[in-house]
Specification:
By secondary structure, this protein is an alpha+beta fold. It has helices spanning 19-48, 72-129, 138-151, 245-257, 262-265; strands spanning 161-167, 172-178, 182-186, 201-204, 208-218, 222-231, 236-240. The radius of gyration is 49 Å and the shape is rod-shaped.
Amino acid sequence: MPFHTSLHSPFHAPTKPPPQEIDQLRKQVAAERNTRVSLETQLNVRRETPNSSTPQQPIPLETVGQPGTTALSDKIEMLQRNRDVYMQEAQRLTEENDKLVKIKNAMEESMEQMVRQIEQLTVQLNDATALPAQQRSEKQLREDMNFRDVFQLGLDQYIVCRHPCSYGAAGKHGILYIAPKCICFSQTLNRKEIKDPNDILVLQYDAIKSLEKVQKFKISFGVTKQLEFTMMDDTVHVFAGFPRRGTAYRDICTQGKNIPVAWALVE
C-alpha cells in the first residue's frame, strides 16, 4: 500500500518567508552592524588621544539603547567618558573665574590708588589757593608757575619774597627765593637757560639743622655778612652779598616758624 503524506502533516517542509521580509531583516542586521562599528571607532579614537588640547564632546546619551549599544559595558564607557568631559569643562570654567577675580581685585586696587592721588592733589590745590590775604597779580601767578617748574615744587609753593645774593666760595650771583616750606637759589627762573642742574639749589626747612648770621673778612672785599645754613647731614651752604641781610634772615625765620622748626624759633 503506497504511503501518502498529508498536506497538514507536521512532517512537511517549512514554508519559505516572503522576499520582502528577508530584505527587511538584512537591512536591520546591517544597520546594527554599522551602528556598533561607528561607536567602537569613536571609543578607540578617544582612548588613543586622551591629552588632546581640543575639548572632547560627550557622546549623546540619546544613542544609549539604540541598536548596537545595548551592551552594558558600552553604556558604562559612554557615561564615564561624558563625566570626564564635564569635569574638564568645569575645571576650565573655574580657572577662568579665578582669572576674572584677580583682574577685578587689581582694578579695585588701582581705583583706590587713583582716589588717594586725587585726594592728595585736592589737598595741594586747596593749599595753593590759601595764599596770603593780598591778591596775587597775574604777573605773580606766572612767576609762581615758573618758580615751581624750575625747582620741581608742589602746587602749595609760591614766592613769598626774594633777596639777591651770591652763593658758595665761587660767589655765584643769583636770587634767593623764600617759599612757605623751602628756600631756593637760582640765577634765573627761565628753565631753558638752566644748563646745569647744579645751578639750582633747594633747601627744605625741616632739613636745616641751624641758621646763623656770620661775618667774615676777605682782603678783596673786606667784611662780608653771610647767612650760613647747616643741614641735618652736616653739609654747609653759605650765602653772602645781601643788600639787607637782616631782612632776609627775618623773612626766612618767619616761614620756618610756620612749619615749625627749632632753629627758626630761637631767632
